[in-house]
Specification:
The structure holds 2 protein chains of 2 kinds.
Chain A: E1 3-12, E2 15-25, E3 30-34, H1 41-49, E4 56-61, E5 64-65, E6 76-79, H2 91-100, H3 110-123, H4 139-152, E7 157-161, H5 169-186, E8 189-194, H6 197-203, E9 206-211, E10 214-219, H7 221-226, H8 231-236, E11 241-248, E12 251-254, E13 257-261, E14 272-277, E15 282-286, E16 294-304, E17 307-314, E18 322-328, H9 329-334, E19 342-347, E20 351-354
Parallel strand pairs in A: 3-8, 3-9, 6-7, 7-8
Antiparallel strand pairs in A: 1-2, 1-4, 4-5, 9-10, 11-12, 11-14, 12-13, 14-20, 15-19, 16-17, 16-19, 17-18
Helix pairs in contact in A: 2-3, 2-4, 3-4
Chain B: H1 3-6, H2 10-20, H3 28-58, H4 61-70, H5 72-105, H6 111-118, H7 120-123, H8 126-137, H9 144-149, H10 158-184, H11 187-194, H12 199-228, H13 231-237, H14 247-256, H15 260-289
Helix pairs in contact in B: 3-15, 4-15, 5-10, 5-12, 8-10, 8-13, 10-12, 10-13, 11-12, 12-15, 14-15
The chains are: A alpha+beta, B mainly alpha.
Chain lengths: 384, 294
Amino acid sequence: MSIRISSIHKQFGTFTALDSVTLDFPRGELVALLGPSGCGKTTLLRIIAGLETADSGEVFLDGREASNSSVRERQVGFVFQHYALFRHMTVFENVAFGLRMKPRAERPSDSDIRRRVHELLDLVQLDWLAERYPAQLSGGQRQRIALARALAVEPQVLLLDEPFGALDAKVRKELRRWLRRLHDDLHISSIFVTHDQEEALEVADRIVVMNHGKVEQQGTPEEVYSHPASPFVYHFLGSVNFFHGRVEGNALQVGDTDLGPNDSEELNAGDHFVACSRPHELELVPADSASAGLLVKVSRLFRFGALARLELDGQGEQAGQIYEAEVPLTSVDALALQEGSLVRIRAGALRVFPAAAPDEVLATNPVAPVSVAPGPGLASAVNA
Amino acid sequence: MSAVIDTPRPGQDRARFLQTNTATREPWLVRLVLLVLGVGFFAIFLLLPLITVFVEALRKGLDTYGWAIHDSDVLSSIGLTFLTVLFVVPLNVLFGLAAGWAIAKFEFRGKQILITLIDLPFSVSPVIAGLSYMLVFGARGWLGPWLIDHDLKVMFAVPGIVMATTFVTFPFVARELISLMQSQGREEEEAAVVLGASGLATFVRVTLPNIRWGLIYGVILCNARAMGEFGAVSVVSGHIRGETNTLPLEVEILYNEYNFAGAFAVASFLCVLALVTLLVKWWVERRVHSGDAS
C-alpha cells in the first residue's frame, strides 16, 4: 500500500508534536522515521494507524482519504515497542487473534487458522513456543511473536514503533537483520520508528529524519549520511565538528583563522555561520605552519590499529570548544604529537550553514553532544 | 505484570532471610517487644471481641441460638441484606468498570477530580451519606413531593437502602480496577483494535480477562462492606421491623431490647458471613499473587 500524508498537524496542549508534515511512502519500501525522542515520529506512526487523530491534514492510504476510516478498516499491522501481547493468551492464540476477529463471512475455518498460525510461527522460527504464555518468553521472542501476530491478518502496511527499543544490543542487531530479510521476502510496505541512527542506516531503504515535529531531511541512508541537509542531521547521524564563525570578505573566518573561501550562495559578508565536518574529514598540520588552520591543543589521543582518534581543545577565542579528529596514525607520528601538543586542524570537507549570532549559539561538543547550533528556522536540542 | 506479582510472597522470603542472617537480625529484646505488641494488640482488639460474639451467642445453648435465628423478623432481615447485596454488587461492578475504563483508557478534563471524588464515600461519614439522601429523596426533600405524586417510595424502603449502601461501597470495585487498569495501560486494547476487534470483542476478550482477579477481589470487599453497612442504612431504612431492617440494624434493635442472646446470635451469623468472605478473599489473593496466566 502506498501512503501519503499531507500537512498533518498535531498539538498536545502547548506541545506541537507534528508541524504540517507532508510525506510520501511508496509501496514496498522499508522506511525509517528517525529522530530524537519527542520529535513526533511515534505520533506520526499512530496517526497513520488511526490510533491517534491529527488536528488537521490528511492521510491517504492507496490514494483514498483515510482520516475518517476506523482503525479496523485500515488494514495496517502495528508492532508496539513493548510488544503488547495478550498476556492471558498463549502464543498460538495471540497470533490467531486477528483471524478470529474477522467478520464471520471472511473468517477462516479452525483448521485453516491452525495452519496459518503455524506457518507464521515457522516464519518467525518460534513454532515450538506455540503453547507458551508471553510471560514465559524472552524480549526478542516476544517481539517476533508480536510481528507474527501483526502479519496474520495480511496487512497492507506494517508499522513498527521502536520495535527493538526494549531489547539488548546483541538481540537488537540480530533482529534488525532478520527484519530486513523478512521485508525482502514479503515485500510489504513497512515504516519503522527509531531513535537509533545505526539501526536506520543499516535496515532502511529510505530514512526520514525528524526533529521538533518537522521533517529535516529524507533520502537513502547514503544520502542523509553523506549529504546532511542541516547541522541537526549532521549531528544526529554520526559524529561531527562544529565551527562557529562569520563571513568576512569572501572568507569563512573562525576567530583569527581563515577556514577557506565562502562558496555558499546563502551566505553574504557579515553573516554568522556554522560549518560542519566529520572527524575523519579533518587534517592535521604543524602548529607553526604558514598555511592556515585552527590552532588546537591535543587533550586526548587514542591509537587503534592504523588510525588515531584525537580529542582537541580549542584555543584563544575558541577555548571551551572540543573537536574530534580521526586521522591515520602516520600523520600523528609525523607531527610527533602527544597529549598537550599544539597542532592546527584543517577541514578537508566542510559544509557551511547560516547560523544565529554567536552569543545565541549554544555550546557544541562533538564528543558528548548535548545541543546543536541552531540555524535560522532550525530548532536545536538533541537528546544525546 | 509487576515484579511484586511475579514473585510469590517476596516479603516472606525476605523476612526469613533477614532473620537467619546474623548481620541483619534484630536484638531479641526488640523482637520480643514487637511480637508482644503485635500479637497482644491483635488478641485484645480483634480476636477477643470475635470470640465473645460466638460465646455470647451460644451461652444459652444451641436451642436458643436456633430459635433466635429462626425468628421471622431476623429471617426477613437476612433476606433484605441478601437482596441489598444482590442489587448493590452488580451496580458497583457496572460503575466500577465504567469508571476504571474511563480513567485508565481515556484522557479528559477533570480526570483528577473524578479520581478524588471516587474516594468520597471513604472520607464522608456514612450517616452523612444517609442524611443527604434523606434531604434529596425524603418526604420533605428536593425530589420528595415529586416521588410522592408518582407513588414512588424510596426512603424507608428497599430502593433507599440499596442506594445508601451503593454510595458507601462505591470505591471498592472502582479503586481496585482503576489502579489495575492504569498499570496495564491501553496497549493491549490498541493491539486488539488494530487486529480488527470490535469494541465489545476487545472488552470481552482482552480487557476483562486481564482484570478478572482484581474485579473479583473488589467484588468480595464490596460484598463484605455491603452486608455490614450500618450508618447510612440506619438513616434511610426507618427501622420497620420485618420490612426495612437489615442484619446490622436487627442486631442493634435486639441488643437495645436486652435480647442479648438474639443480638449475639444474629451478630455471629454476620461474623460467619464475614469470615467466609475473608476466606474467599485469601484464596483470590493467592491467585492474584501467583501471577496466574491461564
